[in-house]
């Protein structure tokens, strides 16, 4: 993956890793970028920590959130 490439995926985070940076889109809004804090083994539930005062947020498969996995060089 090149420095400016991103990969869009749904909540199926089964191939994600803790500590991976993602940009989250849900409910028609860009929620910003955050770090995958934890996830279930099957990737059906993903917790993302956003910067600032907002605590970590849980996303379920049913939320139909869209995640863009950020390459390390494109973060912020």
Topology record:
Elements (H helix, E strand, L loop, with lengths): L6 E3 L11 E6 L2 E11 L5 E6 L6 E4 L5 E4 L7
Keywords:
single chain; 76 residues; mainly beta; SH3 type barrels; six-stranded antiparallel beta sheet; 6 strands; 0% helix; 45% strand; disordered N terminus; DUF1918 domain-containing protein
Describe the model.
By secondary structure, the protein is an all-beta fold. The protein has one domain (7-74): SH3 type barrels. It has strands spanning 7-9, 21-26, 29-39, 45-50, 57-60, 66-69. A six-stranded antiparallel sheet has the order 1-6-2-3-4-5, with no helix packed on it. The chain starts with 6 loop residues before the first strand and ends in a 7-residue tail after the last strand. The model is unreliable at 1-7 (pLDDT under 50).
Categorize the overall geometry. Answer: globular
What order do the helices and strands follow? EEEEEE
E-strand count? 6
User: How large a portion of the residues is in β-strands, by DSSP E?
Assistant: 35-45%
State the domain count.
Answer: 1
User: Order of strands across the widest beta sheet?
Assistant: 1-6-2-3-4-5
Q: What proportion of the residues is helical, as a percent range?
A: under 10%
Q: Counting H and I runs of at least 4 residues, what is the number of helices?
A: 0
- CATH class category name: Mainly Beta
Rg calculated over all Cα atoms: 11 Å
Give the averaged pLDDT, no decimals. 78
């Amino acid at each position: 993956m090149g420095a400016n490439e991103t990969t869009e995926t749904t909540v199926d985070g089964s191939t994600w890793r803790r500590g991976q940076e993602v940009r989250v889109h849900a409910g028609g809004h860009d929620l910003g970028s955050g770090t995958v804090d934890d996830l279930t083994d099957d990737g059906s539930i993903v917790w993302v920590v956003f910067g600032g005062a907002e605590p970590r947020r849980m996303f379920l498969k049913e939320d139909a959130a869209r995640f863009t996995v950020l390459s390390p060089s494109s973060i912020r």
